[in-house]
Design a protein that fits this description.
With 191 residues, the protein is α/β, with parallel strands linked by helices. It contains six helices and eight strands; from the N terminus they run E-E-H-H-E-H-E-H-E-E-E-H-E-H. The protein is globular, with a radius of gyration of 17 Å.
């Protein structure tokens, strides 16, 4: 059975940190206007400590939304692949409190993907060390390594990559979980 690595944020769910950022700033900033992977780059430097306090006081997953069809497709994939959910837990600029995110991610995964073995939840910020046949992530650097298939889930911060640039890195862009289902549940990719 092939091993499949799936990222959480901006791949399975989205918008949580963006909503918290807008709430903190009391703004209505549009996600598509941001080109930075780190939403907190929009926080004025003199308010960054206050934002981190605000962020860690809230559970970002209470504000996140599931990507359309994510759970249904992942459950189908779980019958054909050995799935590992791999997520970074470091918040830029806040390494001391970042471990607080791990139990929140773990609890959210248990509730959202109960069909995935919890021993297959991996929390790291070095995804390139994960040895899987297939990787799905929204960050190009997280797709490094020897995977035979690397799928970049389109997100606001990775739209600038052309298909040619991605192809040079052996990466294929995907825009939905239904597209992933078509790619991964056909005969040539199974087992």
């Amino acid at each position: 059975m092939k091993r499949l690595m799936i990222d959480i944020d901006d791949t399975i769910c989205t918008d949580g940190i963006f909503k918290l950022t807008n709430d903190f700033l009391d703004e209505d900033m549009k996600l598509e206007k941001s080109k930075s992977y780190y939403i907190q780059d929009h926080i004025p430097k003199d308010r960054l400590d206050d934002f981190h306090d605000y962020f860690f006081h809230h559970n970002v997953y209470d504000y996140s939304e599931l990507k359309e069809d994510a759970v249904e497709v992942i459950e189908k994939l779980s019958h054909e692949y050995e799935i590992f959910i791999v997520s970074s837990y470091l918040l830029k600029g806040e390494s001391k409190r970042s471990p607080l995110l791990v139990p929140r991610k773990h609890e959210w995964l248990l509730k959202t993907l109960p069909f995935i073995d919890p021993t297959h939840f991996v929390f790291t910020s070095s995804k390139h060390i994960i040895d899987c046949d297939i990787k799905i992530d929204d960050l190009v650097k997280n797709l490094q390594g020897n995977a035979s298939l690397k799928l970049l889930f389109t997100s606001f911060h990775n739209e600038e990559y052309s298909d040619e640039e991605l192809e040079k890195e052996g990466i294929r862009r995907v825009n939905s979980w239904k597209e992933i289902e078509k790619i991964l549940l056909n005969q040539e990719n199974n087992r």
